Amino acid sequence: MLKIHPLFIYSSIPLFLSISSSSSAHFFQNISSIPTSSIPKPTSWDNFHTLVGCRTGQNVAGLSRLKQYFQHFGYCNYSTSNFTDNFDDTLESAIKTYQLNFNLNITGELDDPTLTHLIRPRCGNADIINGSSSMNFGKVNFSYSNSGGSKYIHSVGHYSFFPGQPRWPPSRTTLLYAFFPGNQLPENVKAVFGRAFGRWSEVTTLTFTETRLYYSADIKIGFFSGDHGDGEPFDGVLGTLAHAFSPPGGKFHLDGDENWVVNGDFVNASSSMVSAVDLESVAVHEIGHLLGLGHSSVEESIMYPTLSSSTRKVELDEDDIEGIQSLYGSNPNYNGSTTMPDFGRETSGAHTLLKSFLIICSVFGIFMDSLL
Ligand SMILES: [Zn+2]
Ligand SMILES: [Zn+2]
């Protein structure tokens, strides 16, 4: 049976499928307000650490789960979903490609750096689609050198697009976004998305306007738990955080089971608070997909697939800006540096007043992108 990946679904999925699994989602003003009962919760990926040192030819419990992981993100193409625990050549090849994409030493073994990377929370979109990678694996200009017996890669990876380079048509310079009514999101959460859209409109010719007409909006934003009808179920705390469809799909789904931090304040984060996720960081990344960008191997870029918990990363990197401007052109007012305020770091009263003003404006339906 053909499995349809959300990246290639351009038509609307019947919304009743999503409604049945809607989530009220968990939002917290800052990391300190997350109750200890919510943290930490181990994810199914944490068990990958038990696989350290596994090599080709071995049979180790848990390798089938790892194969499932690689299959999901496009690193292998087993003909069955009944994965075995054999460390076969296909798995070794998948590990090597993963190591290439994430700028790790290409050993083909499950070494500690590789496993540490594998368990990081990440975007649910695949890194390799129909055998073509948007990351290092899909680039050609690699140079190799040997050092200490290990092979190192010097990455030239940069921004990329989905296969076929889908984008919103030139006639659509203003895109409408709406929030799934069943989530009943508070205004301060909606304002986070307004800021995230603003980061992309600041550097392009695109503008984004919130509408209350969810079903006719270009971009539909919703928090859902587990299976929500598009064949890409969410997996509870951490693991996959969100996913989004390429243009003109417009669907932007976030895992309702995460502990979402709204104001970006991770200053008081302790090591035990491992399950907090910065909402704006994830929103900025997924909007990149909604506009047509694929994943990038540039670790500083917004389009890098992983985001460590309790981490804020909201500034567009040069890699992201070059990529999006090659699709949509540059904002005539963009002078080479972004000016978006980072509310997560603000301390001044003036910024607090500005934030309050923006939230009030959003309550009255004033368009956020025209203010930012
Ligand atoms: Zn992504
Ligand atoms: Zn989804």
From TrEMBL:
Cofactors named for this entry: Ca(2+); Zn(2+)
InterPro entries xrefs: M10A_MMP, MetalloPept_cat_dom_sf, Pept_M10_metallopeptidase, Pept_M10A, Peptidase_Metallo, Peptidoglycan-bd-like, PGBD-like_sf
GO cellular component: extracellular matrix
Superkingdom per UniProt: Eukaryota
Keywords linked to the UniProt accession: Calcium, Glycoprotein, Hydrolase, Metal-binding, Metalloprotease, Protease, Signal, Zinc, Zymogen
Cofactor notes: Can bind about 5 Ca(2+) ions per subunit.
Keyword Ligase part of the UniProt annotation: no
Positions of Zn(2+) 2 binding: C123, H285, H289, H295, M303
Binding, Ca(2+) 1: E258
Motif (Cysteine switch): 121-156
Domain Peptidase metallopeptidase: 164-330
SMART domains (alphabetical): ZnMc
Binding site for Zn(2+) 1: H228, D230, H243, H253
Active site: E286
Alphabetized Pfam families for the sequence: Peptidase_M10 (PF00413), PG_binding_1 (PF01471)
CDD domains: ZnMc_MMP
GO BP terms: collagen catabolic process; extracellular matrix organization; proteolysis
Binding site for Ca(2+) 2: D218, G249
GO molecular function: metalloendopeptidase activity; zinc ion binding
Family: Belongs to the peptidase M10A family. Matrix metalloproteinases (MMPs) subfamily.
Protein name per UniProt: Metalloprotease
